[in-house]
Amino acid sequence: MPSLILLALVGLAAQLVDGSLGMAYGVTSSTLLLAIGTNPAAASATVHLAEIGTTLASGISHWRFKNVDWKVVLKIGVPGAVGAFLGATVLSNLSTEAATPVMSLILLGLGVYLLVRFTLFGLRTDRQHLPLRKRFLAPLGVFAGFVDATGGGGWGPVGTPALLASGRLEPRKVIGSIDTSEFLVSLAASLGFILAIGSQGIDFAWVLALLIGGVIAAPFAAWLVRHVPPRVLGSAVGGVIVLTNVRTLIRSDWIGLKNTPAEGLILAVIAVIWVGAIVWSVRAYRADQAAARAEAVPAVDDEQKTAAPAV
């Protein structure tokens, strides 16, 4: 029973982060399952089965808060389902550990871009009127879905920064659309795992525990993402991506600093920089709001003077 409660709490925390930042449910949950000895295919299958319910709840919540662009959901979600099914089949037959550092390096680059872009320059709005093309979303969906199934998580870490970096969709709708489309990805990945390995190694009590925690958190996360300023949200997302992928890289065979003092020091420095970036973004957002209010006051005064009758 204590382990089930822990899993439920992990599911709740992971969904709260995932629903508000557009990533982390699969990565967080899979990491815990792997840490207690679950084999990779069974761990990914367990997480994706739970995500069928959590992503459905998250999608409904984001829809109610008007955080979803349904055209984007379909254009990226259907190809993502294809990639997830293929990824589940591949993971059931071989290990993809060698590709992990390469993937982390790519994601790290995107994370650094987002962190710098949103922290120093704020939200790019000059491209938001432009549509997200299918020729961009379809390959991205296949790639992100494949990574998600083979890595036990990755739909958000790949999809969210790519859409944010495009500048064509406001952050809350990026997160809402990615979270909603993940339902299709989770469904396809689960089907792929069940066809490949059956129910071998899957503990359905664990699935239920993760599901319950995630469903409870979904509405709160959807509300939160609507009220966090886009500039702050972008800095927060960028920091999560940088921190998690640096951790993956320094623990890989490329660097080999796992469980060393150097690992802790590097991650601590990045965490401090991340917190500083969020504080900077909050202050910049408040300054922009104050400047906008100051500009609005003279405009109102001018209108009142114009409307006042001559004496």
UniProtKB/TrEMBL annotation:
Keywords for the protein's UniProt record, in alphabetical order: Cell membrane, Membrane, Transmembrane, Transmembrane helix
Membrane topology category: Multi-pass membrane protein
Record's subcellular location: Cell membrane; Membrane
GO CC term, one of those recorded: plasma membrane
Major place of residence: membrane
Chain segments annotated as transmembrane: 72-92, 98-116, 136-155, 204-225, 231-250, 262-282
Family indicated by similarity: Belongs to the 4-toluene sulfonate uptake permease (TSUP) (TC 2.A.102) family.
Name of the protein in question: Probable membrane transporter protein
